[in-house]
Amino acid sequence: MSKLILTVDDSASMRMLLKTSLTAQGFRIESANDGEHGLERMHEVKPDLLITDINMPKMDGFELIEAVRALNEFRGTPILVLSTEFSDEKKSRARSAGATGWITKPFEATKLGAAIRRVCP
Amino acid sequence: MSDELDEIQAIFFEECAEGLTTAEQGLSAMQGGDVSAEVIAGVFRAVHSIKGGAGAFGHADLTAFAHKFENVLDEVRGGKIPPSPGVVKVMLSAFDILTDHVESAKGLAPRPADEAALAALEQVLANKGADDGAPVASAPAPAAPVVAEAPAAPAAEEADEYGFLPMAVSLDDFDAPAEAPAAADAAWIVTFKPSRAALANAGEPLLIIRELETLGAEIVAVDTGTVPSLRDLDPEDAYFTWTLRVPGEVTEGDINDCFDFVAPDSVVEVRRDETPAPAAAPVAEAPAADTGADEFGFVPVSAPIEDFAAEMQRVVETIAAASPPVGSVETPAIAPKAGGDAAQQTIRVDLGKLDLLLNLVGELVIRNSILADRLSPADRQRVELPELARLTRQIQDNVMSLRAQPIKQAFSRVPRMLRDLSVETGKTINLETYGETTEVDKGVIEKIGDPLTHMIRNAADHGLESAEERIAAGKDPAGTIKLSAEQRGARIFVRVQDNGRGINRERVKAKAIEKGIISPDAVLSNEEIDQLICAPGFSTAETISNISGRGVGMDVVRSNVEALGGRVEIHSVPGEGTTFTMILPLTLAILDGMIVRLAGQRFVLPLAHVLETVQPEAGQVKRTSPDSEVIDMRGEYVPVKRATEIFGLNDDRAVEDSLVVIVESEAHGKVGLVVDTIDDRREVVIKSLDQNLHPIRGLGGATILGDGSIALILDIEALVASTNRYTPKGMAA
Amino acid sequence: MTDTNDNAGTDRKIVTFSLAQQTFGIDMRALIEIREWDEPTPLPNVPGFIKGVTNLRGNVIPVVGLAERLGWEPSVIHARSCVLVVNIAGKQAGFLVDEVNDIVAIGETEIQPAPEVETIEPSVIAGLVRIATRQKDGTRDEKGTMVLLLDLDALSLTKHLDLAA
């Protein structure tokens, strides 16, 4: 069974781009358009991996990661941050919130796929 | 695949437009003194998203510029740079360049000259906004034409099979060691001590071990010395340290890649094995369970570890076999926020589908009224029919609302335009905007963009005086343009009002005579002179300016607006200013109408205008001049117009045999329209005449009646405005 | 001999029709359909050659008296009068003609440039071509008939009405 990934990004084009490129690599993709929506979708989708943006309205990526990690069910679910941000401060915040890895946008499809397989083989 | 990518890119550009609107609104609010965290965060997020998408689609120039802009915004957001007026001004200029970059990315414009704006942003960053008063380049300096330097993004043909351009830096990690060229053949010794919290972040160390094994690594040793006594042991923490031997031909980069996502407090050491070790002799049997309970030194491991958790479990068991299980860590469950204000979800729908739906609903409305007509009065009273009518109406309203958009979409480009105009004309122009949230049919919004642009340019160029002239006239040297929208009934009023010099009627009239638009002896009212501005081929500018003289005149504004079933009104007071008003229909689709006959032919009279209908008695309609009549309405004299005359239809019916429909017009108040009879009242679907023909003055379109025949829709405003006495050439056929 | 002339270059089909005792042709590709004459709904404030508008499957399309438009005497409506519905640059219009004659294939090379004929706007004639006409008995008249090929783009109503309105 191919891995099921939930992508959370407020940009529709980014969501579609992720879906297109990752589906082509054999992943199954579900999407949400902000942190709050992402948290709701976690319960529905129960993904193998969460990929989230940081800067989003309603609930940002940090808050989403914290909320997801606080749920027993998802304590072992890998979470990758996909953001254009790259400051050490942001990365360390993501890490302490519970992120597994950080990928800086723009992403290259195949490398993103490799990164996903690294945390979610 | 590339089609798909194009489609996604098109959505990205839509997002850019939305983002730019948000950013501009935020920046304008900041300029107006609202520097709340929320506003700043909104602008930041907008620019940030543009940057993110731009990177994904390989728009290197846009990405680079947005990146610099975002840096400044980030500092402002973090309170490190104060959002002083000077800084906001720099950001507004940067915003304009960002807009140009987006256009350039779309391929609609050349790469903008952004050096000045970049330098200004750089300066703000360097000075932390300290030297606010300093002459920071506010407007992009007219830099020498920049040869679009080859962007860092590679050529399109290098795109991979998914259509993605390879990006320079793609993957990042928390704390990856730098890659070094691989050295000689000596095997690698890799030491890995995961962060204690690795498991909490789902960073399963075992996965890294497994990945290394796929590179040929063998585990040399597992150090369990750091496993604490049971009392202190947290089963969710990682305690082991692995030592692995990796074949020498594997590159250091590949090894490091495996540690891409390890936490910063993990220990990763990769070194060459200096002592050419004997090939790691696989110890035949050293089952994990035998990892002596009394010995916590290096434990030789031979077989690949099956499961980190299981391994951990075994270790725990060997430490204290009889202990009760360790209770799990308490985790506060954060419940998702109440679903009350659930995320506003939207989907994008092809406008063509909406149009089709709208047409179908229109037909449904019509069939509904035809059906009602055909039923007997008794059947008509049955509850099902009114219920059907009500539902149909609700569907119609809903479909209409799907197409409704706030008019701010059309207004959004005005601030930028005025900033440019301000630079071009040297005039200081303040913009005031009202009623931006007024909702209008999307089709209307799309079509008023050009007329609005021209009205604004006209106001800035011709309406407003130079600062000197204004001071001499005792006015504020800065001119003001008010842009407003409001809904009144089924019409939208969009006004562009300047507080400039007003229309110079003498000059307009002289020009019109010179251009042969009117005859020299024409006697015109002030309003009629003002209207001449909209006559084809008319321009008052003494020199063709760069601004208004771009081949479109106010006549185009008028014809565009009339094509929408609207009209333009001009109100001017010398010395005080001019107001242009576009009066537009709220929707382009359905109309509640009265089917009337004029000289036997059926027409639709929009019901929104109708006040009452009278059958005139003898003497109730009186002539006040050879070509004007009034009707006595309970003592009030209301002017009467004969549409048949205006349309040149043959009609010899006596007024007493006709009906007079009293209509209320926006511009002329109450007017009586003479019609033969009233056939019916029903909703009609408006079919525009300009789809296959051309707008016709006096008509708002046509509709198809239940029997398939066509009825023309009367434009009341144009009808009551027309006089038979005087028609300026070019204003009506 | 069939419907085609032999020595043609690239074939293209034209619809021929008569109008004011002349034979005209338009490119088949522009033709949407041929309809019987049905009195259109008259429009106010338009040039006289626009007879009105009619309903073509839910679209409101103008109907043009082609004879007047070309400067001839208005057509007299009779049993064989019909309306050619054409597409001109995305807009639809109906042209009233006296009678539709035939559909014939012609070669591009057979088209001769229009001389400066004495219509009001010579530009509406795209060229001249001679075709063999079908006789009542089904045979072809070898002498043939001259067909005036119309340039539909030049007949665009929007273009013309912009000037007229």
From TrEMBL, chain A:
InterPro entries for this protein: Bact_response_regulator, CheY-like_superfamily, Sig_transdc_resp-reg_receiver
Q: Where is each Response regulatory domain found? A: 4-120
Membrane-spanning ranges: none
Coiled-coil positions: none
Tell me if Phosphoprotein is a UniProt keyword of this record.
Answer: yes
- Protein origin, superkingdom: Bacteria
Q: Which GO terms describe its biological process?
A: phosphorelay signal transduction system
Query: What's the protein called, per UniProt?
Result: Two-component system chemotaxis response regulator CheY
Please tell me the species this chain comes from.
Sphingomonas kyeonggiensis
From TrEMBL, chain B:
Q: Name one GO biological process term.
A: chemotaxis
Lineage: superkingdom: Bacteria
| HPt domain residues | 1-105
Keywords of this protein's UniProt record, alphabetized? ATP-binding, Chemotaxis, Kinase, Nucleotide-binding, Phosphoprotein, Transferase, Two-component regulatory system
Pfam families per the UniProt record, alphabetical: CheW (PF01584), H-kinase_dim (PF02895), HATPase_c (PF02518), Hpt (PF01627)
Give the protein's recorded name: Chemotaxis protein CheA
Q: Which residues carry this modification: Phosphohistidine?
A: H48
UniProtKB/TrEMBL annotation, chain C:
The chain positions of domain CheW-like read: 11-161
What Pfam families does UniProt report for this protein, alphabetically?
CheW
Q: One GO biological process from the UniProt record?
A: signal transduction
GO cellular-component term (any): cytosol
Q: Which InterPro entries match?
A: CheW, CheW-like_dom_sf, CheW-lke_dom
The organism sits in which domain of life? Answer: Bacteria
- Which PANTHER family does the annotation name? CHEMOTAXIS PROTEIN CHEW, CHEMOTAXIS SENSOR HISTIDINE KINASE-RELATED
This protein is called what?
Purine-binding chemotaxis protein CheW
Q: Which organism is it from?
A: Sphingomonas kyeonggiensis
